[in-house]
Design brief:
Strand order of the largest sheet of chain A: 1-2-3
Oligomer: heterodimer
Largest interface: A-B, 43 and 49 residues
Distance between the termini of chain B: 36 Å
Number of strands of chain B: 9
Largest sheet of chain A: 3 strands, antiparallel
Structural class of chain A: alpha+beta
Order of helices and strands of chain A: HEEHE
Structural class of chain B: alpha+beta
Shape of chain A: extended
Distance between the termini of chain A: 18 Å
Largest sheet of chain B: 5 strands, antiparallel
């Protein structure tokens, strides 16, 4: 059974359609939780939108989706991802 | 089943973490002893999801810990471990450095001061001779200039209330964030300092928080 979910971060409607002051607060929340804090393990397991399990072996960092997408697009980030059985 | 890691506290602050704090998926936080540190973990039956619910749950769990009096170093979102022993092993590898940060910052919290950028189209509509309020004028001056922001010297203006300051720009030019390290007991004084600074009339204060920007030593 599939449960309802909140928008995955990076989905088009997840941040852009939110009222501006709230957008600022949310943007800061995402920025600090996804891009700041201590990295203990280089091996991070997350699921995207509760559907696909992705393993990211980033060695150094997992950045916000925006940062990650931008860098990946420019070929600056060696992201290795694979589906989990 | 996996042990999901939210943050770290000094072991002598572990007793401040109550047993009722919940994290991702409403799982209950517990403290795992790691040689001088307490690791804040909960047991998940699924991988953390990169959605707002889980991101908020991560942050909320840490805020609750801070609310109950413990200084905590935030761990970046999404770090799961096979077991509590696995957490201990990994934390031990970096424990000394993290413990040093927590000892230096014991009794402190992170406050974040959010300032929105003025969108280009709004700025273009402003008549040059229009009288701007101090807050708006300040925001006008912020656009695109990190160096100018640094030169504002908020840290100095706030005096001894702010122990350390870091500055960053949010993605997509949404705004800028001043991260301030303050003593927990100085929160009221900090808020008064911000509100007495006319240029910050439109700023949003977020906190007290776990140490996010200050979880790692300054480069």
């Amino acid at each position: 059974m599939r449960r309802s979910r909140s928008p995955a971060i990076g989905e088009p409607d997840s941040l852009e359609e939110i009222y501006e002051p709230e957008q600022l607060v949310l943007s800061d929340l995402l920025n600090r939780v996804l891009d700041k804090g201590v990295v203990i393990s280089s091996h991070i397991t997350i699921s995207i939108a509760d559907v696909d399990l992705i393993q990211l072996d980033l060695r150094l960092l997992i950045s916000s989706v925006e940062t990650l997408a931008g860098r990946t697009k420019r070929g600056q980030l060696p992201v290795r991802s694979r589906s989990r059985p | 089943m996996a042990s999901y890691l939210y943050g770290l506290v000094l072991d002598h602050n572990a007793h401040l973490v109550p047993a009722h704090i919940t994290g991702l998926g409403s799982t209950v936080l517990r403290v795992v002893e790691c040689k001088g540190l307490g690791a804040l973990v909960s047991t998940l039956e699924r991988a953390p999801a990169r959605n707002l619910d889980d991101v908020r749950a991560h942050d909320h769990a840490l805020q609750s810990v801070v609310h109950h009096g413990a200084t905590a170093a935030a761990v970046r979102f999404g770090q799961t471990f096979a077991s509590d022993d696995d957490v201990r092993t990994h934390v031990a590898e970096r424990g000394e450095r993290i413990a040093r940060v927590l000892q230096d910052c014991d009794g402190c919290v992170e406050m974040r001061l959010l300032l929105a950028h003025v969108p280009n189209e709004h700025q273009a509509k402003l008549a040059p001779d229009r009288e701007l309020g101090p807050g708006r004028a300040y925001l006008e001056g912020l656009r695109g200039s990190t160096e100018r922001l640094k030169s504002l010297g908020l840290h100095e203006a706030f005096g001894s209330v702010v122990r350390a300051e870091r500055l960053e720009e949010l993605p997509k030019n949404r705004g800028v964030v001043f991260s301030h390290l303050i003593r927990r007991t100085d929160e009221v004084e900090y808020r008064e300092a911000v509100s007495s600074f006319p240029a910050l009339a439109e700023a949003r204060i977020v906190g007290p928080l776990a140490l996010y920007s200050f979880a790692e030593p300054a480069e």
